[in-house]
Automatic annotation (TrEMBL):
The gene is lptG. Belongs to the LptF/LptG family. PANTHER family: LIPOPOLYSACCHARIDE EXPORT SYSTEM PERMEASE PROTEIN LPTG, SLR0882 PROTEIN-RELATED. NCBIfam families: LptG_lptG. It is found in: Cell membrane. This is LPS export ABC transporter permease LptG.
């Protein structure tokens, strides 16, 4: 039985890896074509390729569930098309045993993907975001490029980017008194000196007076603020680019502050349940191989796998987004489609006995 497990598992493993490689290649090519319009003297093609390369580990973890589905259809489908599955069944090997052999490599890949999503992709993705923002903003220091908006000491603050060392980049401070805007202060960089004191570097200050605007410049200035570097860094990152520990830490902080942490909780549970998503889709794939796709061509199996994968991912996305605008917890929004997928797959498998 070990030889059988190894033979079936190897077929599925190689097929899943091949599908993942193809999906990553297609994603890289399509994204490069879409983003190449950003290339200029500051943001070169080399920088774009570097950014896209750094985002590949995160894409790999994201594509593993669909890759597992299509890879299982291809791997088991190849065995079915050469009648090897039929011989196994004729030899008295139960259906669940073949399914178990197919699930083992997928589960191993899913757990490896979870480790990548925790320890590899966050570092690479966050570095890519920092390079992307700083290079795009190099030609226009005042461009709003999707960083983080905060309120500190009654003022509104925009931070374009941050790094893990606690440095902030391209900061804009809107100094106001009541409903009146008194001044706008921009700085290239900020570093935290103590708990409540930051040092701003390369500052330009526009002060609004009764009938004129005065502009002044300074190399460094002291900025008093209770903002914490760790949370500022996390606030400038997209939820999908954070690790599980960072998502848990920041969502807990937001909940303590009475702020909405739905986006971060949704990203947390999405990553936690990715291995179960892969397993649920593999069970559906196994049930279709022994059912309606038993005599289908390889192209038909791939097409069916893509349709099933798209339907599952879209349902997962819709339910997740629905949980953000309703009373449904993010945990339920993510888990319900996975549970439904398990139920459908197990039901179809029982019908094949």
């Amino acid at each position: 039985m070990r030889k059988l497990d190894r033979y079936v598992g190897q077929s599925v493993f190689l097929a899943v890896c091949l599908v993942a490689f193809v999906l990553l290649g297609l994603d890289f090519a399509i994204t490069f074509i879409e983003e190449v319009k950003k290339v200029n003297e500051q943001y070169t093609a080399t920088t774009l390729i570097q950014v896209l390369g750094l985002r590949m580990p995160g894409k790999l973890a994201e594509y593993l569930p669909v890759s597992s589905l299509i890879g299982t259809l291809i791997g088991l489908g190849a065995l079915a098309s050469t009648s090897e599955i039929t011989v196994m069944r004729a030899a008295g090997i139960p259906l669940w045993r073949i399914g178990y052999a197919a699930c083992k490599p997928v589960l191993a890949l899913a757990l490896a993907g979870l480790l990548v999503a925790e320890f590899v992709s966050p570092i690479a993705e966050q570095k890519a975001n920092l390079v992307d923002k700083l290079q795009v903003g190099a030609s226009n220091d005042f461009a709003i490029t999707g960083g983080s908006w905060l309120k500190a000491n009654g003022d509104y603050v925009y931070i374009d980017a941050a790094d893990t060392k606690g440095n902030l980049y391209n900061i804009t401070i809107y100094d106001r008194e009541g409903d009146q805007l008194k001044a706008i202060q921009t700085a290239k960089r900020a570093t935290q000196e103590t708990d409540n004191i930051w040092k701003l570097h390369n500052i330009a200050t526009s002060t609004f007076e009764n009938d004129q605007i005065s502009v002044s410049h300074a190399d460094t200035l002291e900025w008093r603020s209770s903002l914490k570097a760790d949370y500022l860094y996390l606030s400038t990152q997209k939820p999908d680019s954070l690790s599980l520990s960072q998502l848990y830490q920041y969502s807990s902080f937001l909940n303590e502050q009475g702020l909405n942490a739905g986006e971060y909780e949704l990203a947390f549970w999405s990553k936690v349940f990715r291995p179960l998503s892969s397993l649920a889709l593999v069970i559906v794939a196994i049930s279709t191989i022994f059912g309606p796709l038993r005599s289908s061509t390889m192209g038909g199996r791939i097409f069916s796998g893509v349709l099933i994968g798209l339907a599952f991912q879209n349902t997962l996305y819709i339910m997740g987004r629905l949980s953000l605008v309703s009373s449904l917890p993010p945990l339920a929004g993510i888990s319900l489609p996975i549970i439904a997928c398990f139920i459908i797959g197990i039901y179809l498998l029982k019908r094949r006995h």
